[in-house]
Amino acid sequence: MHAVVQAIILGILTGGVYALMASGQTLIFGIMKVVNLAQGALVVLAAYLTYTLFTTLGIDPFVSILITTPLLFLVGVGLQWTLLRPLHGEDVAQLSLLVTFAIALAIEGTLSFAYGATLTNVGPSYANFSWTVLGYQVSFVRFVAFVLSLVMLGLLYLILQRTRFGRSVRATVQNPMSAQLLGVNANRVSAFGFGLGAATAAAAGSVFGMLNSFNPGSHYDLISRLLTIVVLGGLGSIGGSVIAALIMGVASSLVSALASPIWSDFTFFIVLLLVLLLRPRGLFGARTRGAL
Amino acid sequence: MQLRIHRPEVRRSRRLLGVTGALLVAALALTGCTTAPKTSTSKSPLKIGISLSLTGDFSDSGKAAERGYALWASEANKAGGVLGRKVALTIVDDASSPDQVVTNYTNLITQDKVDIVLGPFSSLLTVPASRVAARYHYSFIEPAGGGPAVFAQKLTNLFFVQPAPTTEGGNVFANYILSLPADQRPKTAAYAKLDDPFSAPIADNIQKRFEAAGIKTVYDQTYPAETADMTPIIAGIAAKNPDVVVGGTQEADAFAQIKAMIQQKFNPKWLYESNGANSPGDFPAAVGAANTEGVFSSADWYAESPAPGSKAFIAAYTAKYGGTADQIDPTSAEAYSAGTLLQEVAKKTGKIDNATIIKTLHSGVWPTLVGNLKWDQYGAPQGAYLLIQWINQKLTTVYPANKAQSSPVAPKPNWAG
User: Fold this and answer.
1) For chain B, what is the radius of gyration of the CA atoms?
2) Range list of H helices, B180-278
3) Checking CA distances to A284, which of A59, A190, B301, B351 falls within 20 to 30 Å?
């Protein structure tokens, strides 16, 4: 019983971090119908930025989120502006797959060039600290990361629900044509949306860098997890991606602790297959465009 | 030392040079202006061909091997070469590809007509490369291919320049534990193994020895390479509270296991990680220097190695490449040792050709930086790695006793946090 509870605690905390990464991914899909294969690479980029800020200037990894978030927002806007906006025509969705994959490879290559392929990690003094609560271990970084994910997701929710920009985003998601007719600047919404999606990678990257050893190639593993989370949650649904990330975290952790680590990821894919068989849109994928 | 890196464009321009040269010679012959052939008293250089992964997945290790080989060549040439012949290395890039490595060694042997070839990086590339060498009756001294597939080929021209086959890397830890008096030995053991051909078998071999000696297995799991999060595994192990934990690890997973143990506040009496924990720079950086205390691993060469010649190697390395002793990759020492073996053969026999190398290395014991080596007929080394332990934040040899710099620390001190 102790092992089960401990595994659930670990799973929820880990799921929170993935939820943060996946929310950006699903937001970008919701607005632009672009499956962003560079999201994992953006997370790794943010992890390296955090690493550099920490090792050269001694900036705490959590504090550095205040610096990396606007930076990645600008990177996201820039990428959308220069590489995705010029795509036109029927096959924009397929082309954007190639373009975002190219972005991922370019980020990986640049990071390899700058930092080499050896593993690094961000190691503040509290990186391995944990609380003992009723005999269960709660990792400090994971806990703060989880809370941070909730805060970031809350902010994202507020931006989408309470601001003029958020309203244009939701309008664009529901019906791009009508939104444009009503005066919504689709180009600006897309650029800001991509920027916002990239910005969520900043906070996730700081946490990822503290929890894991990483190198420029780490994004392949991340993106495969993110895509499965986003598909399970329903493409475009932020709430769905959060629930899916938690399901993945808890399922992986439980199976790993109770059965075998070999089966942990496999189990998640079985859950994914079953859900897709019964509900091809994913858990919260809406019938109409407008899942946000 | 002549270090030449072949890149396609270089090769193309050389071919062009060759064509121009031939035309020039023809022109000279026609006009009757031939010069007398240059007579030289110096011996021809000893041409050594090597394919290395200078780009691609293994590029970090490939470059480390390149530094080791190049350092050996320059040191050998400073000392007058091998039997008076200057060493000339031809290093070509295989981009970590098993196909390219075949092309490279075939070209080195048939086009460049090198006298000797030395091995590439990784078992993946050593297997096809060693077959090429065998086909042309070349000896194949190789510093970095120690997996089961290498020795399963049953090639008699191959010599692996490490103390033991890779999968037997942990046997020295089993030797140490089983050398303890029965009442001081661990009673229970947990095994966490990375699912790859080099890591899990190391832990499997330890497990066989432990189980035969009555140490009960309370946890035994293999995890796939993409497992980033070790906390559920460590939580599973901690629940069983074993005396000894054996990790059949590479690098990232070893770091992750230890970080998870610290977070779970689980501290076994003995902790062995087959790889990762033997990295003098990366390991303390990843887990925190204070948390390294008492962790066991195995190694053939490291900065504090007691091997004769190690200090001189470090001095030459840091003079040539800068940095500190702790930053030297063991792969550099292994490649360097492959070179020194050639010098040893030459010293012993007065000859340096492939047949002599193959015949000579099959008998006797050969001292190198990575230990005193001897091989079975298929090139599997018959020695053992050193058991090393982090003591006072330094890697220290603790077993076998005749090479130990200190006695092992057990039980393991608690995590610093």
Assistant:
1) 24
2) 200-212, 231-240, 252-263
3) A190
The answer for B 229-288 residues in CB contact with A (under 8 A) is 229, 231-233, 235-236, 239, 251-252, 255-256, 259, 262-265, 282, 285-288
Of B306, B310, B315, B327, nearest in space to B369 by CA: B310
Output the average pLDDT for chain A: 85
Question: Which two three-digit tokens encode residue B405?
Answer: 């710099």
Q: Note whether B367 and B330 are within 8 A (CB).
A: no
Question: Does A228 lie at the interface with B, CB-CB under 8 angstroms?
Answer: no
Peptide bond just before B411 cis, omega within 30 deg: yes
Asked if the Cβ–Cβ distance from B239 to A116 is below 8 Å, we say no
Give yes or no for a contact between B148 and B197, defined as CB atoms under 8 angstroms apart.
Answer: yes
Alpha-carbon distance of B107 to B120, in angstroms, equals 15
B286 to chain A: closest CA residue: A121
Res B32 pLDDT > 50: no
Asked whether residue B25 carries a pLDDT value surpassing 70, the answer given is: no
What pLDDT is stored for residue A258 in this prediction?
Answer: 80
Q: CB–CB of A252/A268 below 8 Å?
A: yes
Q: What chain A residue is nearest to B220 in terms of C-alpha separation?
A: A260
pLDDT band (50, 70, 90) for residue A58: confident
| B251 contacts A128? CB cut-off 8 A | no
How, if at all, do strands B366-368 and B371-373 pair?
antiparallel
Q: What is the ipTM, given to two decimal places?
A: 0.77
Residue of A nearest to B226 (CA): A221
Q: How many CB atoms lie within 10 A of CB B10?
A: 12
A3–B235 CB contact, under 8 Å: yes
Pick from B152, B134, B149: nearest CA to B197: B149
Which residues of chain A lie closer than 8 angstroms to B60, CB-CB? 116-118
Q: What is the mean pLDDT of residues B248-258?
A: 89
Contacts 24+ apart (CB under 8 A), A150-155: A150/A16, A152/A20, A152/A23, A152/A200, A152/A203, A153/A19, A153/A20, A153/A23, A153/A238, A153/A242
Provide the pLDDT for residue A253: 87
Q: Which residue in the set A2, A119, A139 is minimally distant from B239, CB to CB?
A: A2
Q: What distance in Å separates residue A20's CA from the closest CA in chain B?
A: 17
